[in-house]
Amino acid sequence: MAMWAQMSPQLQFLPTQMLSELYPDTLPVDVRHYLANWIEEQIWEKFDLDNMEQEPQARILLDQMVRLLQEVAQQNPDVVEKVKLQHLSKKLSVYQTQPMQLVRTVRDMLRKERQLLGQAGIAFPPFQPMSVVPPAANGTPQPVRDDFKADVDNLVLKVLEIQNCRQSLHQMQMEMEPMQDSDQAVRPNQRKHLEYNFTVFANKRLELLRESVYALEQCQSCLILRIKSWRWEQHRSSIGVQFDDNLGSLQTWCEQLLGVNSNLKQELMLMKRDHGEAEQFHTCHETLTLLLQTLVQNSLVVDKQPPQVIKTQSKFSATVRYLLGEKIVLGKPIVLKAQIITEAQARNLGQQSIVPNENVGDLLNFTAVLEHNTASKSTCATFRNMSIKKIKRADRKGSESVTEEKFALLFNTEINITGCESPYSIQTISLPVVVIVHGSQEINAMATIIWDCAFSEPNRIPFVIPERVPWNQMCEALNSKFMSEVQTTRALDAYNRHFLAQKIFDQTDISEDFGNMLVSWAQFNKEVLPGRNFTFWQWFEGVIELTKKCLRDYWTAGLIFGFIGKQHIHRLLQSKVNGTFLLRFSDSEMGGITIAYVGPIDNGGRKVQNIQPFTKKDLDSAGLGDRIRDISCIDYVYPDLLKTEVFKQFFTVLSPPNPDGYLPFKLTTVVNPESSSSTSSIPAQTDLAQDFFDPVYGINMNQNNFSPHPSNCTPSYMSDPVSVHGAIYPPSMPPAPSDEPIDMESLEGILDQFDVRH
Length: 758
What we know:
758 residues; alpha+beta; 6-stranded mixed sheet
């Protein structure tokens, strides 16, 4: 803040145009003023603006800036300023899609300020941060080590200096006492010298105490910010963002600051004894008391979150950790209680810090004892086998579904800290959870959680979320979730992301730029896709499940093109040799992968065809590699690689005869493309031992508009029964009923969901 203290008086002498250039609309002077200290402590100069790997670090700084502005707004008593600051925090969302631009803007601003101060004769070198630890490239904060240690060491040294001053003052008093009884004319100079030194040391003692209290306040503010950042990163990990869950460094920080607070309180008490009550002592005492309360109450964190989608009657667990566990007064065991609260109760909790009296759910096994583990030096309460017996839902608005209603688990207890006179009530809440009554609601409930984790703002009012978000932001969330769930290092490329945008916006133009378009919650998981009976998220989640269970190695090896539209496929394949193919996720069937290939037709022409999608059930019976090997009309993986070379690692070798004499069988996939003049669907036959039917079909592409012929969209076997061993069975059976028992509450939940979506 030192540079801003020098810069702010100079602003009145600057021309209006220069002020506008120095503090643009995207980063106005109000932000510079209110966040001066934080801005000057960051690592703007260490960023390489051409290195996009540092973008996660820039995004963390952006999130922190938004969060700090919101905190300043909440604490500001001036209503006008509060509204203004809240507006400024929302205005920073312009950097969400390009956080490196924020770094550039702030860095240039600070450089210009230094230049202007230099011209005014005020030399100001670039700020070198002490206690700010740059985040890692993966977006998680680095462990607090040397810089934090330096700050705490400085605090400890100040406390030692105060103690030395106290001891020196005591020694001087001892030396001056005999002089009061002796002839003062004998040693007047010596007494005067001692009195002068006594006054100097007394003033120094008081000044050191003030400095120490202020330094403690600054250091603890940084600690609280780090704890909040840890919680925020834990929240973001729900969509796959990497997260370091190690709390060791934060615990050490909490314990050391508690020790400093205790020592300063002791020194303050001794100072009052020596010098009597004074207003400045009272102010220091109030500050230390408030800092202690804040530290004690913010040291309770949910180490292991409960599942964010909880089914009633199902068991789950959670672990709560207390970072000051080693400072708890020994004696009666400390029992933590858990209760489920609504979104409205969570909001009131943040304003009043009072445990809600109304019970909205019957929670079983809701208590746990806080236990200390000497090996790990952690103090935790593990809630095992918790379950929600019944849930009381709030009145829903409009078309809101039960899977959109958010709850949370509140953990609270009363605790005694060594050296503190009275106990403290402490509490913390879990991440938002959605409570369901039947497994069929899980996909939609997970959509609610993903939207919340990906797009909620730091330090928000529980559990406020935006209704619309930029597509670029949505795309990053989808990519993180896909990579995390599939457990792959291969991300969605530009082609995949573009097709996803076409899908969610229902736009067929492959040249359109969707980057800044806004996507709504309704488009994500309330409205079904055009011509389909499922939402965008349900379709995308189906692809995740298929890839995770059947296609992870294929995807990671780069053998699956992934998300791509039929028009784009035609452009890619039309110039390739016959038999060239690529693998894409089906856009018409949930959880399917299809083969698109170019092949000849009877009149000498060529056409692009799509083989009926393979689902998990299909790939469980015969792997994708074996099916590709069997299909004779495909030879080259796009652009021109032999399939036998590319996929050979996935081919199954036929096993030798069994010892019991039975011959092994092999499932073979056959595709028989018909001539282009045919309007019927392309049937596929599979030979398994003697009788087995595995349908595979192709879709003819009209080369003028690249859309499938309507007559070819429905294979004949979908309307005709299939004869298997003399019996007649429809080949596409409805899903088997769930084995789970359905009580009245479950039935109501399913019907509610059905009514909303249909």
